[in-house]
TrEMBL record:
GO terms for biological process: tRNA threonylcarbamoyladenosine modification. It comes from Thiorhodococcus minor. Belongs to the TsaE family. InterPro entries: P-loop_NTPase (IPR027417), T6A_TsaE (IPR003442). Pfam families: TsaE. This is tRNA threonylcarbamoyladenosine biosynthesis protein TsaE. The keyword Transmembrane helix does not apply. Its main location: cytoplasm. It is found in: Cytoplasm. Transmembrane segments: none annotated.
Length: 158
């Protein structure tokens, strides 16, 4: 799926629609240059799941957990990871990542290449690129779970 977005607000709206299309367990890798809008997309997902507080990139904490109760009623956990400052993928073990993998949760991972070998495999890969007037997103489903999410996203009225 290829998506053209002209403003950060459009990127947040797309993130909200994506959040409504995915179901736990789901791992989403966000790939793009610094400032491409990975955190903006994550913020949109969190807003789509009902989060009203601040959403910052977990650049220094590496993992930011969110417990959400979206309109569908059931509790959803979303883990937002930003691995930009990760020195060695093995550091993820010290953060309790393996324990978190046992949960049915949504994972949104920025800079996933820095955690290679220690992260769960992605269901969706979203590549964000600069383009004149906005951003170009390429969304690729890598599993059956990801393909189902893309089908729901494609049928979304947003």
């Amino acid at each position: 799926m290829e998506v053209q977005l002209d403003r950060p607000e459009a990127q947040e709206r797309f993130g909200a629609a994506l959040a409504r299309a995915v179901q736990p367990p789901c791992v989403i890798y966000l790939v793009g240059d610094l400032g491409a809008g990975k955190t903006t997309l994550a913020r949109g997902m969190l807003r789509g799941l009902g989060h009203v507080g601040a959403v910052r990139s977990p650049t220094y904490t590496l993992i930011e957990p969110y417990a959400l109760s979206p309109s569908m009623g059931s509790q959803v956990s979303l883990y937002h990871l930003d691995l930009y400052r990760l020195g060695d993928p093995e550091e993820l073990d010290y953060l309790g990542l393996r324990d978190l993998m046992r949960q049915d949760a949504l994972w949104v991972v920025e800079w996933p290449e820095r955690g290679e070998g220690f992260l769960p495999q992605p269901d969706l890969l979203i590549e964000i690129k600069y383009q004149a007037g906005g951003r170009a997103l390429s969304v690729t489903a890598l599993t059956a779970w990801g393909r189902a999410a893309l089908a729901r996203l494609g049928n979304s009225p947003d």
